[in-house]
Design brief:
Dihydrodipicolinate Reductase, domain 2; six-stranded parallel beta sheet; 363 residues; Rossmann fold; 2 domains
């Protein structure tokens, strides 16, 4: 690591909060403090990271000398903790999605534009070997104009924490679209170069969330009467961008279908196939050497060592040290993705194709 160690505070000390703290320490930075409403969680964090802990993030912001903050609370609490941190001048690393509602996300983005600090959003699947290989080739215009992306994030059994905040719309803002669909939307737009999005047609479904036989057997399940499941567990969408470029999206937490995280990219010069967060890029192209023929070739790079979350944390912390907002995973890109999610829900509710608001802050 070059430059001084970043003094990091963490808001929300569950799995992802601990992940950010562990990565920060491994990268040579200092975990100074954490905030969480649960006493047992605070005690565990304090012991694990030798850090001060607080019940409220406001007190932590006031009492501690911080450089940056990682926010990993349930989605509905993102806005207050991020906005308050930015107003303190702290750079912020926010978990995806940006917020639970579009209105909240817009307020956060506006605060970031006015603040003397930046906010980066944790779309960690961009930091994968396959995605970086694709973008490296595309810097040389290898694929030409990306005209269509087929984006899949399908789980056969993968409903997270039924009865937890993930399945409670009041806390999460939505179901599978907000949880894992957000990754697929973001990566598809990223591979396209974040073109303006014009409209969306979508259908959402709730078919398996209240059935015990479709719950992820490796995940926590609260079968009590108080358990809430009021969100969608699958969605299909067609996202139309400028110049009739399109994204077809399939996402599910549970389905009678083989699991898939496959992305297929159609470019004007070549195509590609990769998995979300994967380590191999398959090139699909035609070549004129001899008779015209099609070539399918696998590209890997063993020298690239990315673990997704750690690579994303590194990019954030490097930007904090440099004092420069990152070019990747910006809050305005996250706002575009939030607008697409909002349009998916509006289209599913009305049964019609719906426009996506103008996006003046592109890539």
């Amino acid at each position: 690591m070059q430059g001084p160690a970043v003094r990091l505070g963490v808001v929300g000390l569950g799995f992802m909060g601990q992940t950010h703290a562990t990565n920060a320490e491994a990268l040579g930075h200092e975990v100074v403090a954490g905030a969480d409403i649960a006493p047992a969680t605070r005690e565990k964090f304090e012991t694990e990271y030798d850090a001060a802990t607080y019940e409220g993030f406001e007190t932590m912001y006031e009492e501690e000398d911080l450089d940056a903050v990682a926010v990993s609370t349930p989605n509905t609490f993102h806005e207050k903790s991020v906005v308050t941190a930015l107003n303190h001048g702290y750079d912020v690393f926010c978990e995806k999605p940006l917020a639970d509602t579009l209105e909240s996300a817009e307020r956060m983005a506006e605060t970031a534009r006015q603040a003397d600090a930046f906010c980066m959003v944790n779309f960690h699947n961009r930091v994968s070997t396959a995605a970086e290989l694709f973008m490296g080739y595309q810097e040389e215009d290898h694929f030409g104009e990306v005209r269509h992306v087929r984006a899949n994030y399908i789980r056969s059994r993968g409903i997270p924490g039924v009865g937890s905040w993930f399945t409670n719309e009041e806390l999460s803002g939505g179901g599978v679209v907000v949880d894992i669909g957000v990754h697929a939307i973001d990566l598809a737009l990223y591979l396209m170069g974040f073109p303006p999005v014009e409209d969306v047609f979508a259908v959402t479904r709730t078919g398996f969330g209240n059935r015990d036989d479709y719950v992820d057997p490796d995940d926590w399940y609260d079968a009590t009467e108080e358990a809430v499941f009021d969100v969608e567990d699958s969605a299909t969408a067609l996202i139309r961008c400028a110049d009739d470029r399109t994204i077809s999206l399939e996402v599910s937490w549970a389905a009678n279908e083989a699991e898939s995280q496959e992305f297929v990219v159609r470019g004007s010069k070549a195509g590609a196939r990769l998995d979300l967060g994967g380590d191999e890029l398959t090139m699909l192209e035609a070549r004129p050497h001899g008779p015209d023929h099609l070539v399918e070739s696998a590209v890997t790079d063993a020298s690239i060592d990315h673990s997704g979350w750690r690579g994303s944390d590194k990019r954030f912390l490097d930007a904090v040290v440099a004092g420069e907002p990152p070019e990747l995973n910006t809050i305005d890109q996250a706002l575009t993705t939030q607008r697409v999610m909002d349009a998916i829900y509006r289209s599913a509710e009305t049964g019609d194709r719906v426009p996506v608001e103008d996006q003046p802050f592109g890539r």
